[in-house]
Amino acid sequence: MKEEHMGKPGKRKIALIGSGNIGGMLAFFAAQRELGDVVLFDIVDGMPQGKALDIGESAAIDDFDIKLTGTSNYADLIDAKIVVITAGVPRKPGMSRDDLIEINSKIMTEVAINVRTYCPDAIVIVVSNPLDAMVTLCQRITGFPANRVMGMAGVLDSSRFETFLAWELGVSVRDINAMVLGGHGDTMVPIVGTANVNGVPVMDMLEKKYGTAEKAKEVMDAIVNRVAKAGGEIVGLLKNGSAFSSPASSIIEMVEAVLHDQRRLLPVCALCRGEFNVDGYYMGVPAVIGRNGVERIVEFTLNDEEWDGLKRSYEAVKELVNSLPNDQ
Ligand code: APR
């Protein structure tokens, strides 16, 4: 069953594979911004159709003029310009993202085969967890050039970092610039050295606030620790499902960067070929994002602590990726 709703046909197509919490929110954001015609795909019969209808019925209020389609037929994704994959199972309280590898590998395999068939020219953004492994699997199965397959994690982790810093420093989050690199797990690396408030180093502000460098470091360590566990904090509160609003906002930022060829410098999960001493693995690194997906990875100088953190994270990513089931 396919349901189509509203709008002038013929706009560029955005395919959302997985129409659960994140997928539904994404469809809503994409519609409100008129980013293109949106196709919601899910295996649950009726659900993507229902979400497409529901969102479509807000068009008269929100004044958007795009077509929304809900489907369980991959053929409806044909020739999508961009594909976002959130298909999979989210965490339950007490689970790590890595605990999802077996079940989500099966789902990703099926999804990637269909993306290869129906969306051969698409830019693909993978969101399903464990992220670093799922994006690797997706690239391997589609066989797409690595610039066209990336993962979303760093934008979200960085947004969490910036938010906590803004709260701590009592300044607008708009003026905070901070990045989180590495794998999307407990070993992720919030980069403290370059974190700043409109150019003012965050550590300087913390030191002014607390009087000593030791105390400032203690406060920063607590923030860094909270960032690494922020996804789990939400899972623990929701009890049934994981974060979806902030992930959807983060994905939209990447989708817009591609569709509008913005050349944003964003932390994304990209295939490294020697950058940051990571070779042949996907990991969170800063990259310029434009119409070709990952236009280039941008290296910069890290301090010793950050290098150590990144090395540890790389080891964890390698272990995770090397544990991908062989039959996938
Ligand atoms: N093909 C397509 N969709 C599938 C498949 C499949 N083989 N298997 C499951 N799905 C769908 C589910 O039916 C569900 O609607 O994927 C959707 C996932 O949605 P939610 O369970 O609401 O999860 P969500 O919060 O959106 O997170 C999705 O992103 O952040 C990660 O860890 C998270 O892996 C999870 C993914």
Structure notes:
The chain contains eleven helices and 13 strands. By secondary structure, the chain is of the alpha/beta class. The strands form three sheets. The chain has a seven-stranded mixed sheet, sandwiched between helices. Helix 4 (101-118) runs parallel beside helix 5 and helix 6 runs antiparallel to helix 8 (213-228). The two termini are 29 Å apart. Residues 5-9 have low confidence and may be disordered. The structure holds adenosine-5-diphosphoribose. Adenosine-5-diphosphoribose binds next to helix 1 and helix 4.
How would you summarize what this structure contains?
It contains eleven helices and 13 strands.
Write out key terms for the chains shown.
328 residues; alpha/beta; seven-stranded mixed sheet; three-stranded antiparallel sheet; 11 helices; 43% helix; binds adenosine-5-diphosphoribose
Write the layout of secondary structure elements.
Layout: E1 3-5, E2 13-17, H1 21-32, E3 37-41, H2 47-56, H3 59-62, E4 68-71, E5 82-85, H4 101-118, E6 123-126, H5 131-142, E7 149-151, H6 154-169, E8 176-181, E9 189-197, E10 200-201, H7 202-210, H8 213-228, H9 230-238, H10 245-259, E11 264-273, E12 279-290, E13 293-297, H11 304-322
Parallel strand pairs: 2-3, 2-5, 3-4, 5-6, 6-7
Antiparallel strand pairs: 1-4, 8-9, 9-10, 11-12, 12-13
Helix pairs in contact: 1-2, 1-10, 4-5, 6-8, 7-8
The structure holds adenosine-5-diphosphoribose.
- Could you state the order of secondary-structure elements as H and E? EEHEHHEEHEHEHEEEHHHHEEEH
Spatial strand order of the main sheet: 1-4-3-2-5-6-7
Radius of gyration from CA coordinates: 20 Å
**How far apart lie the N and C ends?**
29 Å
**Largest sheet descriptor:** 7 strands, mixed
The helix-and-strand class reads alpha/beta
Tell the overall outline. Answer: globular
Q: What percentage of the residues does DSSP assign to strands (E)?
A: 15-25%
* Count of beta strands: 13
Poorly predicted runs are 5-9
| Multimerization status | single chain
Task: Report mean pLDDT, rounded to a whole number.
Answer: 95
Give the distinct bound molecules: adenosine-5-diphosphoribose
Helix content: 40-55%
Number of helices, where a helix is a run of at least 4 consecutive DSSP H or I residues: 11
